[in-house]
Amino acid sequence: MKSKLLFFTLVLSFTFSSVFQGNPSSTKAATFTANASVSSSTLTAFEKPNAKSKKLGAFKKGNSILVYSSRDGGWSEVRVNKKVAYVATSGLQFSYKMNTKYIYEYRGGTGMIDKFRYISSKNGTNHWKLYYERLAVDDPEYYNYYESEDNNSYYSVLDYGYGDKSKFVNLKKPIKPGTKWSYNDFPAEIIATGKKLTVPAGVFYNVVVVQVGPDSDSSLLYYAPGYGLLREDDGDHEHDYTYSYQLEKLRTN
After folding, report:
1. CA 204, CA 19: separation in Å to the nearest integer?
2. 5 near 241, Cβ under 8 Å?
3. Of 78, 94, 110, which residue constitutes the final position of a domain?
4. 23, exposed or middle or buried, with CB in 10 Å at 0-12, 13-18, 19+?
5. How many CB atoms neighbour CB 216 within 10 A?
6. Do 113 and 88 share a structural domain?
7. In what order do the strands lie in the sheet with 75-80?
8. Which domain-ending residue is among 56, 73, 94?
9. What is the number of domains present in the chain?
């Protein structure tokens, strides 16, 4: 679907955000977990991913929890007094906005380099500066990028200047397989959640996979809670997906 989307390659749209562990410049891939807040009144932690197993504790609504992974059956791995525990994923709320603590650098197979630097926040909207570089161009281009999240979706606005703006619904809620919406006039659908993905920047968990476009000619977008978009794969010839764009580095802002 290289001629249709594309997210960064053609329309320069984008998304991401939470906790970073490890040194991004290390030769060993850093491991990324995600922050979540408790959305239910009380969230019980169990010794095993089973409500009949031993109770290890409970979290109250509004508590912040570090989530290490999610698994089939609706369970997420957390820690209670440094012990592995499991809570119902349905009782957690994740954010998919970019982490304002970091500078994001993405690279594409054609030599593109996109860098996002956080500027400010207002009324829940984060303002980033996008530095859009190409190997064949001496001077990079600059754009303003805004991201927001509400109870219905995670969306972004790319401001090209001179009144030219584009809005994109990056993720539609609820975040579960089967959720559908329109992305840049193309059909989009969440096809998987709770995945693990490794990119040059590190290892991410609880990744959401979105298919954009018709089955015969689509792209896959990978989002991590607390970080946003990790990678984009272009698809041709019945899902023969190839890498085209991914998160290369995270650096302290």
Report:
1. 11
2. no
3. 94
4. exposed
5. 11
6. no
7. 55-60, 42-46, 83-88, 75-80, 69-71
8. 94
9. 2
* Torsion over CA: 114, 148, 103, 65 (sign): negative
DSSP 8-class letter at 150: -
Do the strands 31-32 and 202-212 form a parallel or antiparallel pair, or are they unpaired? parallel
Q: Are strands 69-71 and 75-80 parallel, antiparallel or unpaired?
A: antiparallel
Q: Are residues 157 and 126 in the same domain?
A: yes
Do 230 and 201 share a structural domain?
Answer: yes
Q: What are all long-range contacts of 123-132, with beta carbons under 8 Å and residues at least 24 apart?
A: 124/148, 124/149, 126/97, 126/98, 126/100, 128/98, 130/12, 130/14, 130/158, 132/12
pLDDT in tens, 145-188: 999 999 899 999 999 888 899 999 999 999 999 999 999 889 99
The token duo for 101 is 């603590």
Q: What is the CATH number of the domain that holds 182?
A: 2.40.360.20
Please state, in angstroms and rounded to a whole number, the distance separating the CA atoms of residues 16 and 89: 20
Q: How far is CA 119 from the centre of its chain?
A: 19
What is the rounded distance in angstroms from the CA atom of residue 202 to the CA atom of residue 21? 9
- Which secondary structure element, helix H or strand E, spans residue 153, and what is its range? strand 153-161
pLDDT for the residue 134: 66
Based on the fold, state whether residues 148 and 214 are members of the same structural domain. Answer: yes
> By residue range, what is the domain housing residue 190?
102-252
What DSSP character marks residue 111? S
Q: How far apart are CA 76 and CA 81, in angstroms?
A: 16
Please provide the distance, in angstroms rounded to a whole number, between the alpha carbons at the two ends of the chain.
Answer: 33
* Tens-place pLDDT, residues 55-74: 999 999 999 898 888 776 78
